[in-house]
Design brief:
- The structure is a single chain.
- Helix 8 runs parallel beside helix 9.
- The chain contains twelve helices and 15 strands.
- The longest helix has 21 residues.
- A hairpin with a 2-residue loop joins strand 14 and strand 15.
- It is elongated.
- The chain has about 375 residues and is an alpha/beta fold.
Length: about 375
């Protein structure tokens, strides 16, 4: 009799454990939480943490069963090799979905692994057009791409900043090179002149040689395709060399960290950048973003850098697709995610086109004024 009781208890315990496992849905976030742009990776990770905490607090039911969401966080160090290793780890773990990566250089190679595994991937910040042009049904993007980003900045440099001699620098990453190429094309199409094309790396600290060349070309606008960790020191060195040109860049430099890194080397209305996203002033989404930023600061004790709201929305739109599909099985909820139309996020209406790109994506043009990032306009 005792053996039967023990056996029954063991079966019950085993069944209970299986049920508990079935009731947990694991979503992963990947970003560079170490290295020069760890502040951006951690910002994104915190957006995912906040979304999962809110969803668990509210309660999530999928297919008639209450589930607990588990967030698996991984560091790709903004390195393509580490990014693919992490992607394989997540594929082997059979996570339900991935929100990430941050950089195009890690997002693009990782996307092939997620596609092979059938795991939906929502990138909150990768802007290189190639990401959603590989034919992968698992790839989604929540922001405008480099064609829109670089194109808008290029036209702005010529038409609004009246740039006559424009220099372009990129850091040779998939992101930096891509946005610099689109910027250059737009400058030339608008009738502008690119007088210098220079290159650096995403780990460089000394720019004296390329900046001296640019000074000799009398550039009045300098565009940098890269991240804030490099742009800040570059701005300081521009000032020390007496280069008073306007400084432009994409979303990689459009962060509060740039203002800290550049310090008093940044004059008012000298720096212009574009965030690949944004909401129009006075819209209902502006209020939603304000509330999000307040919650974020209360929870983490820090300001939003750039893309935390997009990660937050990425997690929530993915879970909404699971709920609607009645399943967290990627094969079952992926078609529902792809068909997302007018999901009301804190970053605006979310709808995907047939490539997985955000429909009618916005750009927020910003400048630095009074030691703070200030919005110039929101463009669609």
């Amino acid at each position: 009799m005792k053996l039967k009781i023990v056996a029954a208890a063991a079966i019950a315990l085993s069944t209970g454990m299986a049920f508990a496992q079935n009731a947990v849905v694991t979503i992963a976030h990947v970003g560079p939480t170490s290295g020069a742009i760890a502040h951006l990776g951690k910002d994104n990770e915190n957006g995912a943490i906040l979304a999962v905490e809110e969803l668990n607090a509210a309660g999530v039911t999928i297919g008639g069963k209450k589930v607990t969401l588990k967030l698996m966080t991984e560091d790709d160090a903004a390195d393509p090799k580490q990014g693919t290793a992490v992607a394989q780890k997540l594929a082997d773990a059979k996570v339900a979905g991935v929100v990430g990566h941050l950089n195009s250089g890690t997002t693009i190679p990782a996307s092939s692994i997620y596609s092979d595994a059938g795991i939906p991937q929502v990138s909150p910040s990768a802007t290189n057009p190639k990401y959603t042009r590989q034919g992968f049904k698992t790839a989604f993007r929540l922001v405008a791409d480099d064609a829109q980003l670089g194109g808008t900045l290029g036209r702005y440099a010529v038409k609004e900043l009246k740039g006559k001699s424009i220099a372009v620098i990129d850091d040779r990453t998939a992101y930096g090179q891509g946005v610099a190429q689109e910027f250059t094309k737009a400058v030339e199409a608008a009738g502008g002149t690119v007088v210098a094309k220079e290159f650096t790396t995403d780990k460089a600290t000394d720019f004296s040689a390329i900046l001296t060349t640019i000074k000799g070309k009398k550039a009045d606008v300098v565009f940098f395709g890269g991240m804030d960790a490099v742009a800040g020191p570059m701005l300081r060195q521009m000032k020390s060399l007496g280069i008073n040109a306007k400084f432009m860049g994409g979303d990689g430099i459009c962060s509060t960290e740039l203002v800290k890194l550049g310090g008093d080397s940044i004059a008012d209305n000298q720096v212009f950048c574009a965030e690949a996203g944004g909401v129009e002033p006075g819209s209902k989404f502006e209020k939603a973003q304000t509330e999000f930023k307040s919650k974020f600061k209360t929870r983490f004790g820090t300001e939003v850098q750039v893309y935390a709201p997009y990660v937050y929305d990425g997690v929530k739109v993915m879970v909404a697709a699971m709920v609607k599909a009645g399943s967290s099985d990627p094969a079952k909820y992926l078609p529902v995610l792809a068909a997302t139309k007018d999901y009301q996020g804190v970053t605006g209406n979310i709808s995907f086109d047939n490539k997985g790109d955000i429909l009618n994506g916005a750009l927020t043009l910003k400048t630095v004024k009074g030691g703070k990032l200030s919005t110039v306009s929101v463009i669609r």
